[in-house]
C-alpha cells in the first residue's frame, strides 16, 4: 500500500491510522500547488479531484475520501480496535463521527485557507466552527476518546483538523477538553512517529 500525502493536511489522519494499525506502507509526497507527486507523476492521473489523501492498494487501485480510507485501514487490523465491527450500531456511530468531522469541521477549516473566500464567508466559517466544536467538547469532557475508551480512526481525524486551529486563529481556549484531547493524542508513540515522518516534529 502507498499513501499519497501532503504534510499536515487531511492525509495526516490515514497516515496516523496506518501506523496505529501496524501495517506495511510506503509514502509518496504530493505538491498540492503543482499537482505532482515526488516521483514526478501528474497527481490528477491518480486522483482527478487533485486532493489528498489517496491510498494506493496492493492491486494498483486507488481509494479516495478520508472517511473511507480510515475505515478500510481500521478493518485491515481488527485487533487494534481502531473501529467497531462492521454491522454494529457502534460502527454507525463511528461513521456518524467521521461524516461530522469531514463535512462540519474539515470543510469549514477549508474555507479559512481558501484565498478566494471573502472575509464575510471566513467570519461565518469561524462562527460555524465554534458552534460545531461544542459537541466534540461535550463528548470529550466525559471520556478520553470520541468513541469512549478506545482510540479510533475518528480520533486520528479529529486530532488532524484540530491541529489546524493554531495556524488559522481558531480559538480553542473555550474548549479545555479538546485541548487535553490534543495533548493526549500527541503523546501516542505512533502519532509522534507520524508527525516526525511528515517533518512536523523535530526528532
Ligand atoms: N473530500 C476529501 C477532501 C480532501 C481535502 O480537502 N484535501 C485537501 C487537503 S486537507 C486537499 O488536498 N486540497 C487540495 C485541493 O483541493 O486542491 C476527503 O474527505 O478526503
Which secondary-structure class do the elements indicate? Answer: alpha+beta
User: Tell me, what's the shape?
Assistant: globular
Strand content bin: 5-15%
Supply the number of helical segments: 7
Mean pLDDT: 97
Instruction: Give the ordered list of helices and strands.
Output: EHEEEEHHHHHH
Stretches where pLDDT is under 50 for at least 5 consecutive residues are: none
CATH class of the largest domain: Mainly Alpha
Going by CATH, the architecture of the largest domain would be: Up-down Bundle
The CATH topology label of the largest domain is Glutathione S-transferase Yfyf (Class Pi), Chain A, domain 2
Describe the 3D structure.
This protein has 203 residues and is α+β, with helices and mostly antiparallel strands. The protein folds into 2 domains: 87 residues, Glutaredoxin; 100 residues, Glutathione S-transferase Yfyf (Class Pi), Chain A, domain 2, CATH 1.20.1050. The chain has 7 helices and 5 strands; from the N terminus they run βαββββαααααα. Strands 3-2-1-4-5 form a 5-stranded mixed beta sheet, with helices on one face. Helix 1 links the parallel strand 1 and strand 2. The longest helix has 25 residues. The model has no long low-confidence stretch (mean pLDDT 97). The structure holds glutathione. Glutathione binds next to helix 3. The site of glutathione (GSH) has 11 residues, from helix 3.
